[in-house]
Give the backbone structure.
Amino acid sequence: MAELLMIEQRRGSDDAALWVREGERRLPGRDSNLRLVELGDGLMRHQGVRVEAADAGNDVLEATLRSLHEGIYLDALQGVRSGETVVIAEFAPPGLEPDIPVNAGLVAAAREAARTAITAAQRLAGGAHFAYAVCRPPGHHAGPDWLAGYCYLNSAAAAVQTLCEAGVRPVGILDLDLHYPNGTAALVEPMADVSLHSLHAAPVTNLPPGTFLPRAQGERALAFDGSPDPDAYLEQVAISVAELAAGAEALVVSLGYDTVAGDPHGSWAFGPEVFTEIGRQLASSGLPICVIQEGGYALDSLAACSHAFATGLLDPILAPFSAYGRKRRQQVAR
Ligand SMILES: [Zn+2]
């Protein structure tokens, strides 16, 4: 039976998100350790999930972060004293206003999230077929020297870097969060042997207006207006999985559950069953899969989403099929 290694983040305290600005509105922070509890509960309900602690060492964590982010940026984050909450305007994404504050607890949590992602990638490099970093805060909006949208350090890029250094390359990155991964795109652009595909909502708000996508060669950036039909979306996921898998030794999946109905930062209306089909498609690629948790803030749906994903990944034949999955199956059978 297939096995999924769930890598559990070391949890801190006083590290919940405070607020996030969307356009002109300042919204209450929705990212907290409660998300990790729900995500883990959903995964552990599946018998094929084994839990291991994030145990990548401090040296490798530091070296990986230094290889991705600017030293001046990392030093500034580390310099935030406990008890202090600051907005560091100079480290907003180029052309955008700062949208989140920083405090010592959030920086510590972001470091633990990166450690969790690095551990998942290390397990993959060590022979595991499926690993899932249950981590927070998300990371895909964090760039070389910027923070945004709850993200301070880029965990997916840290996983990619870990795989490449271990000789597992080329790597394909599939970002299925609701939002465009502006940080990941900037970080992996100079990396040889790494391609990024993102499926996300239009309009893309985390790039300066007028930015043309895709930005890099080999990048696929597919935006959907409004809440897409799940089958149409899954068809595009399948195209990306096939294209990425054709040129990769492993896939890193930035998985966001903010595409489900009721997400406080979302606008789409997917049900958790979409993630069963995504899991199934990833399993059918035959490649090792390293999942990095990005967004997803509807606390009462997260366990159903992570469980649905594990079901599709681990029981590709037994799990219930969506209309899209049934159609694919008939096509394959013909
Ligand atoms: Zn998101």
About this structure: The two ends are 27 Å apart (CA to CA).
